[in-house]
Design a protein that fits this description.
Length: 183
């Protein structure tokens, strides 16, 4: 099996995402794709969290709007739009909580940063499907098992490996391409 990893610049726009999909399509055999957040998203998420934590709700909303604009520009179907809007709504709620508490814990910061990959994976998966190959987005949080040391966690490799095999292997063997969050 081939695992292809694409960083933020590679998935930074609809055109770049379509290019990634064509690269995936050009590889024969079983494959999985791992994606980063769209370029600049992680920094924007951290800035929005910092604004929210400092009591600057307007600044947090401006950051959220910038993230929303970038991702909405990469949407090419109604299904993608629904997934992105749901994640943006959840992100807004978490930022609001940070603003109310005036605190960002390591756990909250890790959750906030995960949104970048969680928004790019469905976009890349949809692009692969548009090019004719079965694909599905995977939130790595559903597969990777770690300890509770947020931002410095250690992976329980045996449990993670079992979860990956159970969730992905059969689908990969039928030719589907999982697009997995890289955070």
């Amino acid at each position: 099996m081939i695992v292809m990893k694409f960083g933020g610049t590679s998935v930074g726009s609809l055109e770049r995402i379509d290019h990634v999909a064509s690269l995936v399509l050009g590889v024969e055999g079983a494959k999985a794709v791992v994606v980063s957040a769209m370029g600049g998203t992680t920094d924007a998420l951290l800035r929005a969290a910092q604004s929210a934590e400092s009591g600057d709700w307007s600044g947090a909303l401006q950051g959220l709007d910038a993230i929303a604009t970038q991702h909405r520009a990469a949407v090419d179907s109604r299904d993608d739009a629904a997934a992105i809007e749901a994640l943006l709504g959840e992100l807004r709620e978490i930022l609001h909580g940070v603003n109310l508490l005036r605190e960002t814990t390591r756990r909250t910061r890790a959750l906030l940063v995960s949104f970048g990959e969680r928004m790019s994976a469905p976009l890349v998966s949809a692009a692969i499907r548009r090019q004719g190959l079965a694909s599905f987005a995977v939130d790595a949080r559903d597969l990777v098992r770690t300890d509770d040391k947020h931002e410095e966690a250690s992976d329980d490799f045996a449990v993670t490996r079992s979860a990956v095999r159970e969730a992905l292997l059969a689908r990969i063997e039928t030719g589907e391409v999982p697009v997995i969050t890289g955070f």
